[in-house]
Amino acid sequence: MKIELKELSKTYKGGKTALKNIDLTLASPSLIGLVGPNGAGKSTLMKMLTANLLPSAGEILIDGQPLAKQEMNLKSSLGYLPQEFGLFEDLSAEQFLDYMAALKGIDAKAAKPEIERVISLTHLEEKRKAKIRTLSGGQKQRVGIAQALLGDPKLIIFDEPTVGLDPAERVAFRNLFADAAKSKLVILSTHIIEDVQSACDHLIVLNQGEICYAGTPDALMAKKSASSLETAYMALMDGRDRA
Description:
Helix content: 25-40%
Distance between the termini: 36 Å
CATH superfamily of the largest domain: P-loop containing nucleotide triphosphate hydrolases
Oligomer: single chain
Strand order of the largest sheet: 6-7-8-3-9-10
Shape: globular
């Protein structure tokens, strides 16, 4: 899958500009880290990539075709975990995944092995029958990750997927995301710079609605003469040439 953003901008009612003239090409296979301070435009960008928000100017091309013509194809090949993700608290984790599989158009025969696959990937075996309201915050997050993986989507977008997970779980899921990105386009929006440095092969930094860096994590570290990506990122935000 190839996604091209051409002079993409978004201005909300009241005049607040969330994105300004974004030019960007995203292509699989790749694991792309999307970072930036609060209000940088990350959520707006992800909502546009999932066809949940229209741009004020510019266009999005999916495999060379305008998004408007490819919207159904996009949504059928999309796995998405937004930051605020609603769960049906009285369903079990397994029942919820069955419901999400139906929404994604996965037929009943194919849904059962697919649910087994994502439960295994997200280590929910012991909680599969538990009602969602009884799960911890980290376990609920794992259910959200599992539903995004249903159907083996070509494009997966995660918004803060490791929030609420303990350090060992974060490492496991970073490995899971990296493995998925061997054949897919995976976009990981996070404020945990360690997740990006450990897993992502490409980095996009947004600030005040504009791209201030696009490239590899290693190239940013070299540019800022930094020993860690977090130090390089902070130097970039501060406008310093050296970390």
